[in-house]
Amino acid sequence: YEGRTILVKKLKMIPYEVIVRGYMFGSMYEAYKKGEPFLGHKFDKTYIQAEKLDEPIVTPSTKAAEGHDINVTLDYMKNDLGSELGEKIEKAALGVYKKCYEHAYRNGIIIADTKFEFGLDENGELVLADEVLTPDSSRFWDLSKYEPGSSPASYDKQFVRDWLKANGLAGDASIKEIPSDVVQKTSEIYKECQKKICGK
Question: Is there a contact between 24 and 38 (Cβ–Cβ < 8 Å)?
């Protein structure tokens, strides 16, 4: 079975997605431009779009059974789960992000943000679960083309998002098929990112 199997175990999943953000971008940048705090985080420093934060931050979201997840503050998650577990999750998420960020950066990729999911095993120990650091769950930028102040060249699923928007299909859950050229281009982007990070 070597090379053909994966050992897995069932976890009691934590009902939150834990998003680590290292750069001023997306909805956080939109709030910042309006002078508003972002999910409990206030920024005294002046930032431009896509600029690296002094320190990465954690912004959870609830796992909705239906519809969209709801962004919440870190304090909300800690109050819900208990401060001990909440702080353990925060520390684990930041630790994994920083370690993986450094590896990716050395290989020409910036991990601007990513989301993690955690669960508890049979002994109540915290375990990192689900997909980890894929282009579907992360915002990957090409370091060689990165310039703060703009929207950096990305390795994530933005290519598919752009096609959906251009065809008036954004948010349409009934889509059954995406054109093969869009699928092919997205696949090429993902493979290029994988090769840079993993070397193969």
Answer: no
